[in-house]
Design a protein that fits this description.
268 residues, alpha+beta, ATP12-like fold, ATP12-like, 8 strands, ATP12 chaperone protein, 11 helices, two-stranded antiparallel ribbon
């Protein structure tokens, strides 16, 4: 049975840099209390080995598996090396939060490969609600920033994919042309690799834009360009109203997931 360990009063006191007591942050105390225990590192060395059909992660020379007991195997040596590096970098405990490529590879092998059609359907739903179609009504600086970041990508989408979305100001839903929706679905279905499909899904859900994710997948944008384009609004808000440390920390974690997905797409 799961339980929460009781904390003494001393354990709930925040400390300042000089060791004196700082005001108690009850939310921080609860977060620390409810963090799950991380598994201990059970291996000395991580590596990979070539095998039939790809390159498999090894721990102390033994082949590793996914949580669903599938072989933890990827198509390229470069991607396998990144997997091994994530495992090698672990300390006394194994922290999945620091292993975004491993998590995506596990998801690919256990969740995407055996459920391709469901993943395609889920991605296709974004064809009618793409971030790039919804523009701010103001202020002018934000409107200009969106246009500068998004219009060249939409030009590419028209030429490369046959996508011609209808743009709308504000957040009211606008129905997209059936031809554009169908064109985006064809672009999804053209992604044959389960690793590419998993990466496309991750990049789409993290940005709200299937078009930006496809632009990365097809080499039109690099990950940094796509991430910046997806967060024009957040950048404007931070410049206008100041930075929020907690929000930026959350965004940094999401960016790491996005970059991991772009890496998997490029190397798989």
């Amino acid at each position: 049975m799961a339980y929460l360990a009781l904390m003494s009063d001393d354990s709930m006191k925040d400390r300042t840099g000089d060791g004196s007591e700082a005001p108690l942050d009850p939310l921080k105390a609860v977060r620390n209390q409810t963090k799950p225990a991380l598994p201990k590192r059970f291996y000395k060395e991580a590596g990979f080995a070539a095998g039939e059909g790809g390159y498999r992660l090894t721990l102390d020379g033994r082949p590793a598996n996914t949580p669903a007991r599938s072989p933890l195997q990827v198509p390229s040596a470069d991607l396998a090396a990144i997997l091994a590096a994530e495992w090698e970098a672990q300390g006394a405990e194994i922290d999945p939060a620091t292993m975004p490529v491993t998590r995506l590879v596990n998801t690919t092998l256990d969740g995407v490969a055996p459920r391709r059609e469901a993943v395609v359907e889920d991605l296709a739903a974004y064809a009618g609600t793409d971030l790039l179609a919804y523009r701010a009504e103001g202020p002018d600086r934000l409107v200009s920033a969106q246009a500068a970041a998004w219009d060249p990508v939409l030009d590419w989408a028209r030429e490369a994919l046959g996508v011609r979305p209808i743009l709308s100001e504000g957040v009211m839903h606008v129905a997209q042309p059936a031809e554009s929706v169908a064109a985006l679905r064809r672009a999804i279905e053209a992604v044959e690799s389960p690793f590419g499909l998993a990466a496309l899904h991750t990049m789409t859900t993290l940005t709200g834009s299937l078009i930006l994710a496809l632009a990365v997948l097809r080499g039109r944008l690099d990950p940094a360009e796509a991430w910046a384009a997806a967060h024009v609004d957040e950048t404007y808000q931070a410049e206008a109203w100041g930075h929020d440390a907690e929000a930026e920390e959350r965004l940094a974690k999401r960016r790491a997931e996005f970059e991991a997905a772009a890496t998997v797409a490029a190397l798989a």
